Amino acid sequence: MGNSRHSIGWLLVWFAGTVAAGLSHAADSPDQTAALIDRGKYLAMAADCGACHTAPRRETFAGGLPISTPLGIIYSTNITPSADFGIGRYTEEQFSRALRRGVRRDGAHLYPAMPYTSYAKFTDDDVRALYVYFTQAVRPVDHSAPQTELPFPMNIRLSMMGWNLLFLDAAAFVPDQHQQAEWNRGAYLVQGAAHCSTCHTPRGFLMQEKTSRALSGAQVGPWYAPNITSDPISGIGSWTKDDLAAYLRSGHLPRKAQAAGSMGEAVAKSFQHLTPSDIDAIATYVKSVPAIHDPSDNGSRFAAGEPFSELATLRGRDGITSGEDDPAGAELFQGNCASCHSAEGQGSKDGYYPSLFQNSATGAKNATNLIAAILFGVDRTISGRQAFMPGFGGHPTDANALSNEDIAELGNYVLTHYGSAGTTITEEQVAEVRRGGPVSPLLRLARGGMAAAVIVLLGIVFVVVKRRRPVSS
Amino acid sequence: MASDSSADVVIVGTGVVGCLVAESALDAGLSVLMLEAGPRVDRWRIVENYRNLPPSLRLFHWDAPYPPKPWAPHLETRRDKESEQYLQLEGPNARAYLQGYVRYAGGATWHWAGLCWRLTPEDMRLKSLYGVGRDWPFDHDALEPYYTAAEYAIGVCGPSDPALQWPPNAKRSKPYPMGPIPFGPGEQRLTEVAAKIGLSNLPAPQARNSGVSYHGRPPCCGNNNCFPVCPIAAKYDAATALPKIEAKGGKILANAVVYRIETGEKNSIEAVHYFDPEKNSHRITASTFVIACNGIETPKLLLLSKDERNPNGVANSSDQVGRNMMDQPKLTADLELKEPLWTGVGPVQSSSILNTTQGEFRSRYAGAMFRMENFARSPLGAAAALKKGLVGKALDAEIRRLSACTARLSVEHEPLPLPQNRLTLSDKKDWLGINKPNIYYDVGDYVRQSAKEYTVPLLQKLANELGATSFQLSSEFLNSDHIMGGCIMGSDPATAVVDADCRAHDHDNLFLPGGGAMPSGTASNSTLTMAALALKAADAITAQLKHG
Amino acid sequence: MLDPDRDDFPTAFNLARREVLLGTLLVGGVAAFGTLPPASAQASWSDESAARFMEISSLLIPHHLNEAIGKRIGSLMSALNPSLSDHVTGLLAIAKAKNAKVVEDFFPDVPEGPLKETALSIISAWYLGVVSDAPDAEVFAYEYALMYQPTRDVMTIPSYAVSGPNGWTANAPPLGDMPEF
């Protein structure tokens, strides 16, 4: 009797505590809510939710952005608090599961195009702030985004369960006691919100990040996210921490690099808005990432090339014509590039148009970014100022389109004289970048594997059935 | 869907007018086929052509980087023999009609200056207000929305301060899509000096991307060779519209020289015929036809197409086709100055003085637009310094001085539509056997009087104010490349070729938008007005085809 | 006479004018050049001649000169003017006699006549990037033509960016400045 009274007592206390906790959530003061919203907004910006969940010409966070992956197109979802089309019915618990475990409210799995593997690092408090921000401060948009239909068998989301079992590290971030607060803050942001590894860490056959080669470079659609480890040749070991901070804030570092593609977007939508101390923290952490050296790199991608032109022999030689087949790389360069990047590739005096030598876009052994820059251009707006290079045919409406052959010719000229002289690009490479990047063999193999499995199964059935036929007497 | 031989709308000419009509029609769900006499070319090739020209041809010879195809001739500099000249010009001011358009896909906007002035309300009512010329058949309010649409379609930058806008007395329904382009030192100095004598040098609205990209094209970075070609397509030219038209499903046939418009019973247009480079003829049909191959080629084609139903040429019951040929006769003054007026910074033209175009005096003589030319004068300074036999430091200093301390001022006069200024078919034939255009041109007393009484004295005054130590006026009137009047607009079919929608009075499925339709030439650049007329005509075409 | 006002007008559209024009058009006033030098003459411009041509060019023009362009100028000019090699020798001799380091040291000693005309032609060629004014003249330099250099701090070389978008101003350096080149 006494015991049960005690138990009931503890039960009541526990219950009251839970209710109180629940009530205390519900009863946040307006100031506390406002602070949470601010914090959530900042974290959403640090995590760059908008980069995927806000599509051009669609409302904020209403989804609909087609993300091209090696397995097909994935559309981002509506994460506004719309009850029928967004996350309006999500509890905080469900929000947390989606964000950190990649599981939707209806139990379906998200594809890791949503970087939940990184967001798993978010602390409970930060998840809470994000939840409050998204459900209370974002405007609900009551229409759906297009549905994602990956080709069979990738459209079976249940397969993600197995994948997660193998590859999802569900542990929240744990600070390293041997490191300073700034480093830990940087680690938390880089591993979590900023999800750098989802682009910069190479992936294995099943598209999982290879954590042993963290941040050593990977293909992202038509662009290449380079090695940003501390290796002085293959990575950014030659950069100071201030260099990196400056790059993250502004999107470029003269005579070194400039951000384009997804990184340009990341700087424009996310990094340029972070606090200076968070930027410094990120820079501190990234600069400490273990060096990973690519043995085939003989020089840093930031130090290649010098001013050059063939003009002394070219000028006047190609004459006045209305068109020609097979123009040489030098002609294509002078006609298409030099008007902005200057006759010897040195860029404009004010540095707006970067030099093409001592520039990672040309100096990298992997010429993907050079090809992508030529095809798709650069467009990032930082501190209200737009940095823009037009694309030369990546979009059908481009004013000055170049063929795959011309881009290969031009690219090789640029690589030889301004960048990685040992790199050669082919028309096929250009065509692949133009298509959006390499396709994963996973799809073909998965289908092939399944077909093989079906054949084997049928074969077994056949044998079994045959064996079971009665022998005529 | 357009095929190679038919579409809802067939457009002859891929210049700014044709391309604006094409996009508008495609957006309305109509099929479009465009026929272009000349080739499609890559911009980079033209840029390299320009750099490969000798210095004597890099300035003023704006067609030189565009070698014409034999089947689509246009004005050329590099031809030796006079007999090979394409434009046949006569009259006291033949030189002033030496029009430098380009028969390439994209048309003359390849090498236009890009200035986008709007007409004033008064510019459209010369007859009512000043008793000269013709009135437009609609007023400025009717044209304003189309000006705005054109500015957004091609990407025009301009000042948001109403005090700097033109016309000064007409409201804009929308701001310019982009802010103004900054002045270089020369324009700044001219603005300050001109203000002292009551001349207002305004930042020009220009079809150049200012500070930001627009429609995927980069912003201007001061290449300073807008003519003859913008190397980066920061300046709008119709060639940039071609991929967009194709992306929307329009078909473009290049190297297709239309030589005849075929009429059918009820005198509607049945087809157009074109030659390909092998001289094979092809017949193209459509519901509606738009002839927009510029103010010389369009009337030429109409005259070439005379048949039994139209003995004076298609659309020519008024006998006005090819008449009233207008351009802004131009005079230039080359100055030597005591103080520098640095050119070569920013676009080649970025400002103009327009308050000199308006006033009661227009009942007696022409209004005129003044401006300085902002192309880099370094090659001129160098050539002049070298001629003096200087060497070493003295040579360099003199090159710098002559480059900085010389200037060219231009004044462009408004023309009147004179019926005797006439395009007819020459007996000389081109490579395809098509009659070359023959143009008789006399700038008229209206212009001559203006030069005598008004513009030349004002030029001298401005030159003095600038501290000129020498003043050299051009010996004759020159062309401004704004070809107008040859298919003049009016409500009366007896005296006009097209109506207020640029529809031919004689054929209700034939449209002739462009400079040729303008009833008044005025003193300012015609392109934006042509673009507005293109969009207005496109609205009429769409309404006609979709609602009958 | 070449009329700069004649937009797009052929510089020589009939035969009679052509001859007159050729006489006056030539850069530095050197006697009649044809426009197409015979191929054999070009081939005979040796490395040794090219080196001497560069030497006299550097003495006549106190600026950085591109050797590959110098080779083109020299071989072009020598094809049009067979005495070029001798003139170069003569000019070098005058320069050496004066122990000249720059053109002002020896130019006053160059006698009027073919020697001076050649000297001025060489200078003109480097500055303008052509050897004659004819519409079909071979162009060997545009970006490297020196004529753009004395004003390079203000004016762009046409078709090349002056700065980033809208990055220019109405300020200009003093006329007395001279860029280094």
Query: Radius of gyration of chain C, Cα only, in angstroms?
Result: 18 Å
CATH fold descriptor of one domain in chain A: Cytochrome Bc1 Complex, Chain D, domain 2
Please write the CATH class name of one domain in chain A: Mainly Alpha
What is the makeup of the main sheet of chain A? 2 strands, antiparallel
Largest sheet of chain C: none
What fraction strand of chain C?
A: under 5%
Provide mean pLDDT of chain A, rounded. 89
Widest sheet of chain A: strand order? 1-2
Low-pLDDT sequence parts of chain A? 15-24
The topology string of helices and strands of chain A comes to: HHHEEHHHHHHEEHEEHHHHHHHEEHHH
- What quaternary form is this? heterotrimer
SSE pattern of chain C: HHHHHHH
Euclidean distance between termini CA atoms of chain A: 78 Å
Taking all residues together, what is the mean pLDDT of chain C?
Answer: 81
- List the total number of helices of chain A: 20
Q: What's the Cα radius of gyration of chain A?
A: 27 Å
- Tell me the total number of β-strands of chain C: 0
Q: Helical amount among residues of chain A, as a percent range?
A: 40-55%
Net shape of chain A = globular
Low-confidence stretches of chain C: 1-42
